[in-house]
């Protein structure tokens, strides 16, 4: 939390509130306004925005964001879409990372390990601006589920792949057996950590009707699962994702009271608002001092390759499900492709690169450039694309978030 004090925090929250009001009136994505505000603050009053560090993103910002998204996802429709989602976040992530890695190696002459690390970290998506547009425009439920669930699982897989590559870059034994063991430990260790923390604390929550206690226990679940997994070198993202799914499904079915459920949802919505506000303002502050022009060719190459990689990750994988019940409309594919924005996790992984990676400085700068493109260009045009594709729900009575996501899968169009 270096650079944070109460006056600074208060000032940033005040700026965030003003940006929220302005972007709502202008019908612009909130995250874009925050990044612009961060850039303006850094240029007008240098030193007012605290530094964006990987520790701050990983251990303070990331757990609540993953948890808040996970508790909103009901298990039944998620399970129904799981074969498609698993294909997207395994085969898709490998394809996306491979396109970027090969391209950066041959185009920019980066080392294979540097290009591979960049390919994996830039494959991590952050759909905050897209989900914000979804809520404003009332998109169809299945699309909302696919975008948010794919992003959460995508982040977990990208983080796992990055950890394995960092181990290889550090000079560890890179034989198939070792890599396979690390992969199993990272994935299943993360899932186990999430369950180990969430289940007993949910049972404790069932012993009280005090919503403040229930909210407190969910805070412990979100951060505790992440920290436990990271302590044992497993995936903190997968741990918190697992814990969130347990709380949002098993916990809300009886262990947490009806009053507590509403309190928990409102609390985490507020926490996500605060965390996203801080993240995007700090991203803007860092962008203002990132020497992108010095690496403009690499930044342009990486941006084009990341888009190509995302296209390869989405279209061929989804076409494999064309003749199944999980067939996805072309309009959904276009949204998943263009809505694959890069954000906080990609930057955290870039900043966490070991010094032994030859292109570390270039990777950090280029990662910020790709994130800036995705936020300003893809984020700004996403509402237009959603309207153009005709994906807005018909007018009528607005169902709850849970009801939206539990509607039956529609027929392909």
UniProtKB/TrEMBL annotation:
One of its GO terms (biological process) is sodium ion import across plasma membrane. One of its GO terms (molecular function) is sodium:proton antiporter activity. It comes from the Bacteria. This is Sodium:proton antiporter. It is a multi-pass membrane protein. It is found in: Cell membrane. The chain crosses the membrane at residues 6-23, 30-50, 56-73, 85-106, 112-131, 152-171, 183-205, 212-229, 235-253, 265-285, 291-315, 335-357, 363-386. GO terms for cellular component: plasma membrane. Its main location: membrane. Residues 15-388 form the Cation/H+ exchanger transmembrane domain. Keywords: Antiport, Cell membrane, Ion transport, Membrane, Sodium, Sodium transport, Transmembrane, Transmembrane helix, Transport. It holds the Pfam family Na_H_Exchanger. Signal peptide: none annotated. Belongs to the monovalent cation:proton antiporter 1 (CPA1) transporter (TC 2.A.36) family.
């Amino acid at each position: 939390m270096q650079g944070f004090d109460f006056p600074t925090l208060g000032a940033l929250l005040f700026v965030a509130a003003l940006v929220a009001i302005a972007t709502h009136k202008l019908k612009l994505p909130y995250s874009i306004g925050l990044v612009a505000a961060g850039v303006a603050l850094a240029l007008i009053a240098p030193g007012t925005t605290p530094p964006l560090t990987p520790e701050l993103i990983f251990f303070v910002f990331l757990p609540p964001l993953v948890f808040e998204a996970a508790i909103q996802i009901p298990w039944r429709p998620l399970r129904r879409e799981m074969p498609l989602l698993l294909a997207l976040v395994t085969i898709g992530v490998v394809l996306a990372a491979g396109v970027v890695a090969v391209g950066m190696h041959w185009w920019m002459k980066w080392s294979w390990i540097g290009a591979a690390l960049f390919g994996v970290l830039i494959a991590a998506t952050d759909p905050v601006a897209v989900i914000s547009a979804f809520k404003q425009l009332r998109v169809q439920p299945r699309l909302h589920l696919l975008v948010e669930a794919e992003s959460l699982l995508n982040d977990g897989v990208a983080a796992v792949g990055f950890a394995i590559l960092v181990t290889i870059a550090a000079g560890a034994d890179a034989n198939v057996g070792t890599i396979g063991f690390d992969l199993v430990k990272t994935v299943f260790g993360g899932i186990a950590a999430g369950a180990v923390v969430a289940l007993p604390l949910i049972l404790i929550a069932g012993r009280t009707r005090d919503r403040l206690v229930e909210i407190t226990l969910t805070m412990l679940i979100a951060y505790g699962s992440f920290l436990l997994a990271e302590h044992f070198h497993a995936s903190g993202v997968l741990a918190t994702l697992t814990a969130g799914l347990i709380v949002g499904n098993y916990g809300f079915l009886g262990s947490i009271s009806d009053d507590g459920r509403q309190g928990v949802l409102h609390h985490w919505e507020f926490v996500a608002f605060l965390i996203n506000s801080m993240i995007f303002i700090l991203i803007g502050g860092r962008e203002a001092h990132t020497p992108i022009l010095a690496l403009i060719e690499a930044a342009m190459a990486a941006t084009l390759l990341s888009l190509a990689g995302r296209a390869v990750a989405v279209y061929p994988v989804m076409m494999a499900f064309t003749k199944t019940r999980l067939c996805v409309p072309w309009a959904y594919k276009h949204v998943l492709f263009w809505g694959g924005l890069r954000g906080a996790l990609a930057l955290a992984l870039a900043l966490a690169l070991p010094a032994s990676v030859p292109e570390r400085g270039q990777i950090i700068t280029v990662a910020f450039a790709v994130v800036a493109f995705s936020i300003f260009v893809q984020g700004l045009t996403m509402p237009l694309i959603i309207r153009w594709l005709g994906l807005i729900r018909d007018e009528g009575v607005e169902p709850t978030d849970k009801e939206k996501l539990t509607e039956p899968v529609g027929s392909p169009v």
